[in-house]
Amino acid sequence: MKRIAGTMGIVLSVLLVLFCASVSHAQNTQGDTKEYMSSSPAFTISYPADWVEQPLLGPVMRMRVAATGTTPFTDLSVQIFYSPLEDSAQNLAMGLRNTGTNVKMIYDKPSQLKDGAPAREAEFEWVRNGAKVNTMMLAATNGQGALILADLTSGSGRIGDDLKKILYSLEVKRVDEKQ
Fold first, then answer.
1. Which of 70, 65, 79, 73 lies closest to 29 in space, CA to CA?
2. How far, in Å, CA of 62 to CA of 74, rounded?
3. Rounded to whole angstroms, how far apart are CA atoms 109 and 25?
4. Domain residue ranges of the chain, discontinuous segments joined by +
5. CA angle 71, 157, 152 (to 5 degrees)
6. Contact 75/66 with Cβ under 8 angstroms?
7. Are 67 and 75 in contact, with CB atoms under 8 Å apart?
8. Is 166:46 a contact under the CB 8 Å cutoff?
9. Chain segment 41-60, per-residue pLDDT in tens
10. Contact (Cβ atoms closer than 8 angstroms) between residue 148 and residue 167
11. Residue 88 in 3-state DSSP?
C-alpha cells in the first residue's frame, strides 16, 4: 500500500509540474560560483562557475549542471515533487532505480537548511552505466506542498564536505501555509 501511495505521489507530482506555469530562472555569476534562481517554487542554489548546464531529464527536473574536465564525473540537479519531506529519499531511490542498478541507501536523516528550515539528507551508492557512483540529496519544502530535492552524484566515492557545501547552499522561500 505504501509503495502504491508513493508511486501515485510521483505520478501526481509529474502531472502537477506539467500543468504549472512556466518557471522563470536566472543564473548570477559571483566570483567562483553561479547561482540558479527559480521563482515558482522559489529557491536558489549555488555551484562552481565552471560547471556547465546539462539537458534536463524529465518534467520534474528544474536544473542540471556538471563539473567540466573532471574524472570521475560530478553533477548536480534539482527536482520538484509534491510529496511529504519524509518521502524524499524514497522518491529519489525510485528514480535512481529507473536509471541504474544496485541502489543502496547509506543513510537517510533529518537535517536543516542554513536558515534552520527542516530538511532531509540522504546518501546512496549505486551503479550507473556500469560504474559505481554515490548520490547525496538534500530536500526541503516550501510550505505549500512543493518538495525541492537537490541531488549531487559523483563517481569518486562518498560525497565529501566540499561537494556537500554545494547542496547546503540550497535556499527555499517558504510560503505561509495559513494564507
1. 65
2. 18
3. 30
4. 2-168
5. 80
6. yes
7. yes
8. yes
9. 999 999 999 999 999 988 99
10. no
11. helix
For residue 20 the three cell numbers come to 504549472
CATH of 2-168, picked from 3.40.640.10, 3.40.50.10860, 3.40.1000.10, 3.40.50.300, is: 3.40.1000.10
What is the distance between the alpha carbons of residues 159 and 124, in angstroms, rounded to a whole number? 10
pLDDT tens digits, residue range 70-126? 667 899 999 999 999 999 999 999 999 999 999 999 999 999 999 999 999 999 999
Strand order in the sheet with 171-172: 25-30, 33-39, 42-48, 171-172
pLDDT for res 96: 95
pLDDT category of residue 157 using cuts at 50, 70 and 90? confident
Q: What is the dihedral of CA 102, 104, 88, 36, to 10 degrees?
A: -80
pTM value is 0.80
List the beta bridge partners of residue 59: none
Check: CB of residue 157 under 8 Å from CB of residue 172: no
Closest CA to 53 of 31, 37, 68: 68
Cell of 32: 567562483
Q: Amino acid identity, residue 117?
A: A
**What is the pLDDT averaged over residues 130-140?**
96
Determine the Cα–Cα distance for residues 144 and 33; give it in Å rounded to an integer. Answer: 29
Strands 147-154 and 74-81, bridge-based pairing: antiparallel
